[in-house]
Design a protein that fits this description.
394 residues, mainly alpha, 2 strands, globular
């Protein structure tokens, strides 16, 4: 266990006068706000305006810790002891780097190694600091024998979009799968066309995440024809990279092929939400009425809400979502149970669209075809055409 009891004591320096309760609050809130920020960035799509507000509050609390200096350490340590999660690891790692405390940095590395979430907090601390501040650490780590330190070094480059130059060709072939995955992602972010042969070879990697990030990187470099099969497999697999894979898959192939693929996904209850969410990635705002229809189906409503916010970012300013399934009716209560999800309210979205003059929102509101009263409205034929989402089915 870490030592963090009693009043703050400094190591090798005169005591700085602080207000303990205030410094404790700064430490706890800094951990909380970074964890909140990290979670918000996982939203689909994230609300960057909200994230910016959290960032301001986070930075204000970090400023308080800067002022407290080393006297803040007992509170930082106590926070991690009490709750060793991503926010507290961010706090510990950030403070260690801020204070240029080698022993504490080494502790943070070990805490990150033991974490179950890929050391998100420590990677976040590296991203929060300026590149010049972390440069000595990154230079030491990126070529280290320790695979976890190499991973941290590459992740720091990724967070700051820094090119490790000739080292990257070696890192994308690293013995460690986590290092390979991070390096392949960095190669795509930097658009390193000079190592495209290494990226192609990585499509045959024995591990899924390096294969996925190789496919993603190739898409960024304009070689989506090679990447599409792997991207689609990851998207349908539903893992943590599914949304990133879906977005890349929508970019990797000609639009006609992407629409045909999504039409196939629509036919299965397991993959229909993926197709609905993917529709929002194609940039066609004229599908609003179709999205409103999907919002009336519990299994598709959340995906339709994500597509809505991607196509119409201005919809965030309106009161169009609810966390209460009871507001949407018994089918939604049955579907969501005790787990609330941020779900669009179809009628509110329809009225919002009409009010703002979006033509598609003013189309006839029907979910049946004239030849089949119980048949769900569908755009599968339109998806399989080279034309835009066709409203002739309405």
């Amino acid at each position: 266990m870490l030592a963090a009891t009693g009043k703050p004591k400094l190591e090798g320096a005169p005591e700085r006068r602080i207000v303990p309760d205030v410094v404790r609050q700064h430490a706890e809130q800094a951990a909380f706000f970074w964890a909140q920020r990290d979670t918000l960035m996982e939203d689909d799509p994230p609300d960057l305006h909200v994230v910016a507000g959290v960032d301001r509050r986070l930075e204000a609390n970090l400023d308080g810790l800067r002022i407290a200096g080393p006297a803040a350490w007992p509170f930082v340590v106590a926070a991690y002891e009490d709750f060793p999660e991503k926010g507290e690891l961010f706090l510990y790692g950030w403070m260690a780097i801020e204070q240029n405390d080698g022993r504490r940095v080494a502790d943070a590395v070990e805490f990150g190694r033991q974490s179950q979430d890929g050391a998100r907090g420590l990677v976040g601390a590296l991203a929060w600091h300026k590149p010049v501040t972390i440069a000595p650490l990154v230079r030491d780590w990126i070529g280290a024998p320790d695979a976890f330190k190499r991973f941290l070094g590459v992740s720091a480059c990724l967070g700051h979009c820094v090119d490790p130059k000739q080292m990257l060709a070696r890192l994308v072939r690293d013995p460690d799968a986590r290092v390979r995955a991070a390096s392949l992602r960095l190669a795509g972010k930097l658009k390193r066309a000079d190592i495209v042969n290494e990226l192609r070879a990585a499509l045959n990697d024995a591990e899924e995440r390096p294969r996925f990030w190789a496919a993603w990187a190739l898409t960024e470099l304009g070689s989506g024809d090679l990447a599409s099969p792997e991207l689609r497999k990851v998207a349908v697999g539903g893992g943590p990279d599914a949304m990133t894979a879906l977005r890349a898959a929508a970019k990797a192939a000609p639009e006609k092929d992407v629409r045909a693929w999504m039409g196939t996904l629509l036919k299965s209850p397991e993959t229909a939400p993926l197709a609905v969410r993917g529709a929002g990635m194609l940039g066609d705002r004229e599908i609003l009425h179709w999205l409103i229809h999907q919002m009336r189906m519990p299994a598709l409503a959340v995906a339709a809400g994500g597509a809505l916010l991607e196509l119409f970012p201005e919809a965030r300013e309106a009161d169009l979502f609810t966390l209460d399934p009871a507001e949407l009716g018994q089918p939604f209560e049955d579907h969501f149970g005790d787990f609330s999800a941020r779900t669009p309210v179809a009628e509110k979205v329809k009225k919002w669209g009409e009010r703002n003059g979006y033509p598609a929102a003013q189309c006839q509101d029907t979910i049946t075809r004239s030849t089949g009263a119980n048949e769900r409205w569908s755009v599968e034929n339109a998806l399989n055409s080279s034309e835009r989402w066709d409203r002739s089915n309405l």
